What we know:
Blueprint: H1 2-11, H2 16-23, H3 25-31, H4 41-45, E1 51-52, H5 67-76, H6 83-97, E2 102-106, H7 108-122, H8 126-131, E3 143-147, H9 156-159, E4 164-168, H10 171-177, E5 182-188, H11 199-208, E6 213-216, H12 226-233, E7 237-241, E8 253-257, H13 259-267, H14 283-298, H15 301-319, E9 325-330, E10 340-345, H16 354-363, E11 368-369, E12 378-382, H17 390-404
Parallel strand pairs: 1-11, 3-4, 3-5, 5-6, 6-7
Antiparallel strand pairs: 2-8, 7-8, 9-10, 10-12
Bound molecules: pyridoxal-5'-phosphate (PLP).
Amino acid sequence: MKRREILKSLTILPLAGSMTAAAAPLENILSAAVPAAKRDLFAELGIRTFINAAGNYTVMSGSLMPPDVMDAINAASKKFALVDDVQEKVGAKIAEMCHAEAAMVTAGCWSALMLGMAGVLTGMDTKRVSQVPNLAGTGMKTEVILQKSHSMGYDHALTQAGVKLIKVETRAELEAAINENTAMLWFLNREVHKGQIKHAEWLELGKKYNLPTMIDIAADVPPVENLWKFNDMGFDLVVISGGKAMRGPQSSGILMGKKKYVAAALLSNNPRGGIGRGQKVNKEEVLGMYAALHRFINLDHQKEWQMWETKIALIANAIKSIDGVKTETFIPPTDNNMPTLKVTWDPNKIKLSNTEMGDRLRQGNPSVEVISWEAPNSLRCGMHVLEAGEEKIVAARLKEELIKASVKS
Ligand SMILES: *Cc1c(COP(=O)(O)O)cnc(C)c1O
């Protein structure tokens, strides 16, 4: 998978900062006496930081939490509360905001997938909760049906609750696969264009066979309406990441939908000892997620979109007159549905592979990450993860490297 390549290219880097840290032990000792908030631990420890012109990649630490979110987290860190109380009150608010019967904050969308699955399997039976993921001989159902094209790695989260994945392509195959062990029909919104069966038919099949349906919309806001669209449509469970475009804690997500499943999922979660115990979310993540959701819903999304377009124009204008360079705006259709800048170059005029380009931007000062692993002689830049003014640096660095690699005519 592509993700593995990103990981590889990110880890083989020389860590420029680490040399400074090693060369200045006295400074380290002195800085240890300064209160933590004043310290730059990244610099101190030699951790490379970078301008993110790529996107909300888990490997690149996701997103930056805005002040609203950090305020909620800091305030939450100063008082004790019962975790169940926090989940209950926040869950009720999130449910209301997203048109669901119930909601809970999970440790990322991955955990929402696993816990939602567990809730479907166990219901409110605590004996069953203690048996997951060892389903054999318990009377719990054991199979989940999904479309082959929707199997992109994230379905693995469901198997952590003990189920087997049954992958089908056609409606006829799906209907033939349903049996007394079928627990749920699972849908990955990101791949809706690839699968033969779309939302409405998926829901119709769920109704016909009296099976719960779950949809994964992890990275599929904006548009903001997606937060409630799939609850309105009738999916029994909807799961989404908190730390992607919503900019909540990177370790947060939401499980929402029918009350009977969310209530059951909470039984498998911390503070109890079910399969979710190792994916603890505390008051800081839960309230941080809530603040992020609140902020995101109330954002001026049209203004955000215009700002991204302005940034794209600035970068494109800086480089498009370079001989052999082409720029265009690309908007992914479902996940990360936001304008990105696509830069393509003629390999006869600019002698630089896409991965070399990625490496040079990464090794520059400041270090810049772009999406450099998708196609030869091209890269993409995500705008929604850039901090104010950083587009100018990205423009200057791209220009510099493209000109440096240009063949003199
Ligand atoms: C990112 C993602 C996940 C996992 O979400 P986390 O919040 O990182 O746990 C699940 N499904 C899809 C489709 C994703 O893009």
